[in-house]
Amino acid sequence: LTNQQINEAGHLTIGGVDATKLAAQYQTPLAVYDVSKIRNQIRRFKSVFEDNGVDYAVSYASKAFATIAMYQVIDQEDAHIDVVSGGELYTAIQAGFPMAHVSFHGNNKFQAELEMAVSNHVGVIVLDNFHEIELLNDVLEAHDTSAAVMMRITPGVSAHTHEYISTGQEDSKFGFDLNSGQAAKALQQVLANPRMNMLGIHAHIGSQIFELNGFQMAADKLVEIAADWHAQFGYQPEVINVGGGFGIQYTKDDHPLAPEAFVDAIVKTIKQSASDRGLDMPAVWIEPGRSIAGPAGYSLYTVGSRKDVPGLQSYLTVDGGMGDNIRPALYQAEYEAVLANDPAAKPTETVHLAGKYCESGDILIDNAKLPATKPGDVVAILDTGAYGYSMASNYNRNPRPAVVFVENGESALVVERESYADLTRLDRPYQAK
Ligand code: LLP
């Protein structure tokens, strides 16, 4: 936030390219990714595992941002992905992503999605509920094949985060419940099924988490379950997957630990707990989404209208908004913004940085501290790489922005800007019969 790169002209640079030039070349609103930040974060996660000498997978939670180019970069870094829909899986297939490195998640995978996963030989299907065990069994029978599976359980840990993005507490739609014995029953079904190869156990406690203790509790809980299963059923999970959720810094008020500090604590907890309980050390898998995609992303907007209300904070409106970043409207998420042509300028006023959508809640930054800003200026909102473009909509029939990857001073268009024709491409006229 503070040490954004600035060039001789005093402009913001992203991946070595002047942000005002990106805005001029590709137009705004524009999603820009600094690819080296993506690579670097994956490498940092990996080095934690290497330093601890454990088997691992860093599996990028691609819901944070999934495009063909992103999947290619993830594969270049030899990381895995998780997908949660046929659409994400399709995109990964189009990207040429190795299917053995794919985990398929979701609390209501359709039969067609399971067929797609099975026929493309995805690495592991993460079972979420009893209905799915039956459905997958049918699909495997029909294809006369088998598949590696993991079981998602709700560990009964509630993470201190927004309730919509907290998932590990008992009252959750995701995973098998532990205390009622559902998880043990599901395990027995899976172990008895010759078409399912039970690889391990999974839990995800939530997202944008700042504290260690939830992860440590969940990690310890997973080992405890593994020990119970070992004692009761003679089964030991090869993999313990602790999900994602590592928080990132969006504003100066956020003080998360460094993402790798979470992972280090998780690995050490599992090591200790496994050794205390006399279990073999399992492989540890993580599924970071936000911490890989978030800090790498920038949203560039052009400032348009301004409304001054005497005695109240002014509204400065940009050419995008909740259609390309719904997080402020949905979760009261906070961001910081800078002027692309003078990111170091001292703020002189606090304004509502508003979007162009027809909704009062479409405010990108409620209290944006900005220097004097005029129509035509380009504003960069920082750290928008996760759950921004991936949650974009066509509300108000605004086309979704283009996406550009920048690295080593070069930019490349990786998703074209939608056109008006794209917006009506699937529409059909209606004639009353
Ligand atoms: N693994 C599983 C099973 C998940 O459900 C999620 C996120 C992740 C991994 C990745 O979590 P991350 O590392 O990105 O925190 N739309 C919300 C976030 C929803 C997260 C859903 N699951 C937001 O914009 O904050």
UniProtKB/TrEMBL annotation:
HAMAP family recorded: LysA
Question: What PANTHER family does the record point to?
Answer: DIAMINOPIMELATE DECARBOXYLASE, GROUP IV DECARBOXYLASE
Which SUPFAM superfamilies does UniProt cross-reference here? Alanine racemase C-terminal domain-like, PLP-binding barrel
* Signal peptide positions (record): none
**Per its record, how is this protein called by name?**
Diaminopimelate decarboxylase
The uppermost taxa in this organism's lineage are: Bacteria, Bacillati, Bacillota, Bacilli, Lactobacillales
Which transformation does this protein catalyse, written as a reaction?
meso-2,6-diaminopimelate + H(+) = L-lysine + CO2
Q: Where is the Orn/DAP/Arg decarboxylase 2 N-terminal domain?
A: 36-293
What positions does the entry give for substrate binding?
290, 327, 331, 359, 387
Residues bearing N6-(pyridoxal phosphate)lysine are 63
Q: Keyword check for Lyase, yes or no.
A: yes
What sort of enzyme, by top EC class, is this?
lyase
Stated role: Specifically catalyzes the decarboxylation of meso-diaminopimelate (meso-DAP) to L-lysine.
